[in-house]
TrEMBL record:
Keyword DNA repair tagged: no
Protein name from the UniProt record: Leucine-rich repeat-containing N-terminal plant-type domain-containing protein
Domain Leucine-rich repeat-containing N-terminal plant-type span(s) in chain numbering: 499-534
Domain of life (superkingdom): Eukaryota
InterPro entries (UniProt xref): Leu-rich_rpt (IPR001611), Leu-rich_rpt_typical-subtyp (IPR003591), LRR_dom_sf (IPR032675), LRR_N_plant-typ (IPR013210), RLP23-like (IPR046956)
Native source species: Arachis hypogaea
Length: 794
C-alpha cells in the first residue's frame, strides 16, 4: 500500500488526473492549486477514506468509486455552487445514513452513481431539481419509501436504476408519462406492489425493462407493443459496450461514456450478460404475481433478446407469435400455470441459447428443431404430459402442430356456431308453426287436444298404466320449455341495452382518455367492449372494469353520466386511479345491485362511512389492515366463510358504531380492545366458534345475549353461560334448551303431517276418482275460457 502525497509547489495546471487502480491509502490531500479550469479527476479503485474534499467540486467529471469514503454530506451540501460538475461516481464505498438532500446547486450534473453503498431512508426530493440528469443509479442500497414525485421533472433521464433496495408503494404513473426519454428502467428486487401502470407504454424508446422480484399482480399490459425500440432494428450498431451523453457547459463541452449493466434472473440466480445488444433489448417481469394470459402482442417485439416471465401465475397457452422473436437469445417461462403444447414456431428461433419452460402444465410433443432438442431436460421438467427428446418420456403418437390445432379449433367453432343457429331457427319455426296455430285457432286447438287424448288413452291402456301422471308430465315439460323461451329464447346473441350503451358513450366522450383504455368503446354491442360485461339473458351491463389511470380526477363524470343508468351493475373496479383530494362518492351507496367494488389505490380523502361485504362467500382471515380505517363508522362482514381470529387491533376503530361479524367461522377470544370503542351501538358476533370470556366493559355487557349466541365456548355476561370463576346457572340453561328443542321438533312434525294431509287430500282424490278429476278439469277449462274471452286473447 502506498500513501498518497503530492507536491503543491509546481505551477502547471491539471486538466485531467487519473490515478485509478493504484491501491493508494489515506486521505486525499488538497491539490486545488494545481487544478486548471474544470478538470476530470479519476481516483477509482484505491483505498482512500474519510470525507470527500470540497475542492473536488471544481471537477467536471469525478470518479471516486471503489474506495472507503464514509462521508459525502459535506461535499454535496457545501455552500459554493457545483455548477461545473457533470459526472459524479461515488459507488462502492462505505457511505451510510441518508443520501444528502441538497442537490439543487448541481445545475449541470448529468450522471449520478451512488450504488453499492449502505444508504438508507428515502430518495432525496432535491434530486428532482437536477434537471440535466441523464443517468441515476441508486442500485443496491437500503433506500425505503416511494420514489419522490419531484423526479418527474427530470425529463432528460435515459437510465434509472433503483433496483435492489427496499422501495415500496405502487410504481408511479409519472415514470411513463413524464420520463419518456428512458431507455433503461430497473426497479427490480424492491417491494413495489399493484398492477403494472399502463403509462409505462409511453416509453417508446425503452430498451431494457426490469420489474422483477416485486409484488406486482394483474395482467401483463398488451400496450407493451408500443415499445418501438424493441420492434425496429437500429440502423447503426457498434461493437462498444459504452453509451454516450454530451454535457454542454458555458466553458467547455464534454462527452462521457457510461455502462449499462443488466442483471437477469435465470433459474432464480442473478446473471450479468455481456452481449451489448442483449443489455439493451430485454424485459424481465419474473418473480411477481402476474396473472392471465401472455399477450400475443409481445410477438411484435421482434428485436427482443431477453424475455423472462418466470415465477408468476400466468395461465393460458404459450402464444405461437413468440416464434416471431427471431432475435431472442433468452426465454424463461418457468414456474407458471401455462398449458397446451409448445408452439412449433419456437423451433425457428435460431439464436435461442437459454430456454426454460419447466414447472408448468404443458403437454404434447416437444417440437422437433435443432435448438429445442439441444437444451437440457431440466428446461422441460415438471410438465407431466410433455414428451419427446430431450425428455426420457417418448411420444407414441405424433402430436399435431399448433397451427393445425388452431385451424381445427376455428373450424369447429364455425361449425358449432352454425349448428346452434340452425337448431334455434328450426326450433322457432317448428314450435311456433304448431303452437301458434293451436294458440290462435280454436278449432285446431280442440282437434289437437282430442288427438292427444286419444293417443294417450290408447298407449296407456295398452301399457295398463294410469294416463293422469303421464299427462301431468307432458304438461310440466311444455311449461318448462315455454318458460325457457320467455326467459331468453334459444340461441342468438344478446345486444346490450341501448340506454346503457348510450350512457357509456356519453361517459367516454366526456373523458380525456390519455392511455386509450376506452378505444374499444364503439359499435352497437357494448357487451364486447373492453372492461364491460353483460348478463346473457337480459343484456344489461353487470360489470365495469375501469382500473389503472383511466379516469384520473374526472370521476365526477362517472356520477354524471352513469348514475342511475346502469341499474344492474354488480361489479365495479376503479382501482389504481388518481382521485387525490376527493372523498369517497356517496352515490356508490345508491348502486343497489352492486356486489363487488374495488377502490384500492385511488388516494381518496375523508371518512369511510361504511363497508358492507355481508352475505357472500368470502374466506380467509379478516385482514389486520382494516385496523387502519380509524374513521370507519360501520363494518358488516356477516354471513361469509371467514376464519381465523378477530384482529386484536380492531379497537383502534374508535369511530365504529356498528360491527357485524356474525355467521362466520371465527375462533379464539373476543379482543379486549373492542371494549374501548365507546360509540359502538350495534354488535353481532353470534354463530361463530368464539371462546373464552367476553371482555368486561360497559359497551360489551350492554348488548343483548343474542349478540353472542351460538358460540359454544363463549362465557360471561350477558350470556347465561358463566365462566368457571363465576356462579353457573346450568339448570335454567338446560331447561331452556330442552324447551326449545321440544318446540322445534313439534313444529316440524306438525308441518309435515299438515302437508301430507293437505296435498294428498286434494291430489289423491283427483288422481283416483275419475268423476272428481273430470269435474276439476272442466272447472279449469271454464275458468280459462271465461278469462280469455273477456280479454279477447282467443
Amino acid at each position: 500500500m502506498l500513501e498518497f502525497r503530492i507536491s503543491l509547489q509546481s505551477g502547471f495546471g491539471l486538466y485531467t488526473m487519473n490515478i485509478s487502480y493504484n491501491n493508494l491509502t489515506g486521505t486525499i490531500p488538497n491539490f486545488a492549486l494545481r487544478l486548471a479550469g474544470y478538470p476530470s479527476i479519476y481516483l477509482a479503485a484505491n483505498q482512500f477514506e474519510g470525507s470527500i474534499p470540497l475542492f473536488l467540486r471544481r471537477a467536471v467529471s469525478l470518479d471516486l468509486s471503489n474506495n472507503k469514503f464514509s462521508d459525502v454530506t459535506s461535499f454535496v451540501c457545501a455552500n459554493d455552487t457545483g455548477e461545473g460538475l457533470s459526472r459524479l461516481d461515488i459507488s462502492n464505498n462505505y457511505l451510510s445514513s441518508q443520501i444528502p438532500d441538497c442537490w439543487e446547486n448541481f445545475k449541470s450534473l448529468a450522471y449520478i452513481d451512488v450504488s453499492n453503498n449502505n444508504f438508507s431512508g428515502q430518495v432525496p426530493t432535491s434530486m428532482g431539481s437536477v434537471l440535466e440528469l441523464r443517468v441515476l443509479i441508486l442500485r443496491n442500497n437500503s433506500l425505503m419509501g416511494e420514489l419522490p414525485f419531484s423526479m418527474k421533472h427530470c425529463k432528460n433521464l435515459v437510465m434509472l436504476d433503483a433496483g435492489e433496495n427496499k422501495l415500496s408503494g405502487i410504481i408511479p404513473s409519472w415514470i411513463g408519462s413524464s420520463l419518456q426519454q428512458l431507455q433503461m428502467l430497473s426497479l427490480r428486487k424492491n417491494h413495489f406492489f399493484g398492477s403494472i401502470p399502463l403509462s409505462l407504454c409511453f416509453l417508446n424508446g425503452i430498451r431494457f425493462l426490469d420489474l422483477s422480484v416485486n409484488q406486482l399482480w394483474g395482467p401483463i399490459p398488451k400496450c407493451f407493443i408500443n415499445f418501438t425500440a424493441m420492434t425496429t432494428q437500429e440502423r447503426f450498431l457498434t461493437d462498444s459496450h459504452h453509451h454516450s451523453y454530451i454535457v454542454n457547459h458555458t466553458i467547455i463541452r464534454h462527452m462521457y461514456n457510461y455502462d449499462i449493466i443488466a442483471l437477469l434472473m435465470w433459474k432464480g440466480v442473478e446473471h450479468i450478460f455481456e452481449n451489448d445488444k442483449l443489455l439493451l433489448k430485454g424485459i424481465d417481469l419474473s418473480s411477481n404475481q402476474l396473472s392471465e394470459d401472455i399477450p400475443t402482442e409481445l410477438g411484435n417485439l421482434v428485436e427482443l433478446v431477453a424475455l423472462n416471465l418466470s415465477r408468476n401465475n400466468l395461465t393460458g397457452i404459450i402464444p405461437s407469435e413468440i416464434g416471431r422473436l427471431v432475435s431472442l437469445e433468452f426465454l424463461d417461462l418457468s414456474r407458471n400455470h401455462l398449458f397446451g403444447s409448445i408452439p412449433s414456431s419456437l423451433a425457428k428461433i435460431d439464436r435461442l441459447s437459454m430456454l426454460d419452460v419447466s414447472h408448468n402444465n404443458l403437454s404434447g410433443m416437444i417440437p422437433i428443431g435443432t435448438q429445442l432438442q439441444s437444451f437440457n431436460a431440466t428446461s422441460y421438467e415438471e410438465n407431466q404430459d410433455l414428451c419427446g427428446l430431450p425428455l426420457e418420456k417418448l411420444c407414441f403418437v405424433k402430436e399435431p402442430h399448433q397451427e393445425s390445432v388452431v385451424k381445427t379449433q376455428d373450424e369447429n367453432d364455425d361449425f358449432l356456431q352454425t349448428f346452434f343457429m340452425s337448431m334455434g331457427l328450426g326450433f322457432f319455426v317448428g314450435f311456433w308453426g304448431i303452437f301458434g296455430t293451436i294458440l290462435f285457432n280454436r278449432s285446431c286447438r280442440h282437434a289437437y287436444f282430442r288427438f292427444l287424448n286419444n293417443i294417450t288413452e290408447k298407449v296407456m291402456s295398452r301399457m295398463n298404466l294410469n294416463p293422469v301422471p303421464f299427462m301431468i308430465l307432458i304438461e310440466t315439460v311444455l311449461l318448462f320449455i315455454t318458460m325457457l323461451l320467455l326467459a331468453g329464447g334459444v340461441g342468438g346473441e344478446v345486444k346490450c341495452a341501448e340506454r346503457e350503451r348510450q350512457a357509456l358513450l356519453d361517459f367516454k366522450a366526456a373523458m380525456v382518455d390519455d392511455y386509450g383504455m376506452l378505444s374499444s368503446w364503439k359499435g352497437r354491442d357494448c357487451c364486447h367492449w373492453n372492461g364491460v360485461r353483460c348478463r346473457n339473458l337480459t343484456a344489461h351491463v353487470i360489470s365495469l372494469d375501469l382500473h389503472g389511470d383511466s379516469i384520473g380526477n374526472e370521476y365526477f363524470y362517472f356520477e354524471r353520466f352513469l348514475r342511475g343508468k346502469i341499474p344492474s351493475l354488480r361489479y365495479l373496479n376503479l382501482s389504481f386511479n388518481g382521485f387525490e383530494d376527493y372523498h369517497v362518492p356517496e352515490f356508490f351507496g345508491n348502486l343497489t345491485s352492486l356486489r363487488y367494488l374495488d377502490l384500492s389505490y385511488c388516494y381518496f380523502d375523508g371518512r369511510i362511512p361504511s363497508i358492507d361485504l355481508s352475505s357472500n362467500h368470502l374466506s380467509g382471515d379478516i385482514p389486520s389492515e382494516l385496523e387502519n380505517l380509524v374513521e370507519l363508522v360501520s363494518l358488516n362482514l356477516s354471513r361469509n366463510n371467514l376464519t381465523g381470529k378477530i384482529p386484536s387491533g380492531i379497537g383502534r376503530l374508535l369511530s365504529l358504531e356498528s360491527l357485524d361479524l356474525s355467521r362466520n367461522h371465527l375462533f379464539g377470544s373476543i379482543p379486549s380492545s373492542l371494549a374501548q370503542i365507546s360509540f359502538l351501538s350495534v354488535l353481532d358476533l353470534s354463530h361463530n366458534n368464539l371462546s373464552g370470556q367476553i371482555p368486561t366493559g360497559t359497551q360489551l355487557q350492554s348488548f343483548n345475549a343474542s349478540s353472542y349466541e351460538e358460540n359454544q365456548n363463549l362465557c360471561g355476561l350477558p350470556l347465561e353461560n358463566m365462566c368457571p370463576k363465576e356462579e353457573p346457572r346450568q339448570e335454567s340453561l338446560v331447561k331452556t334448551q330442552d324447551e326449545n328443542d321440544g318446540f322445534i321438533q313439534a313444529f316440524f312434525a306438525s308441518m309435515g303431517l299438515g302437508f301430507f294431509v293437505g296435498f294428498w287430500g286434494i291430489f289423491g282424490t283427483i288422481l283416483f276418482n275419475s268423476s272428481w278429476r273430470h269435474a276439476y278439469f272442466r272447472f279449469l277449462n271454464n275458468i280459462t275460457e271465461k278469462v280469455m274471452s273477456r280479454w279477447q286473447w282467443w
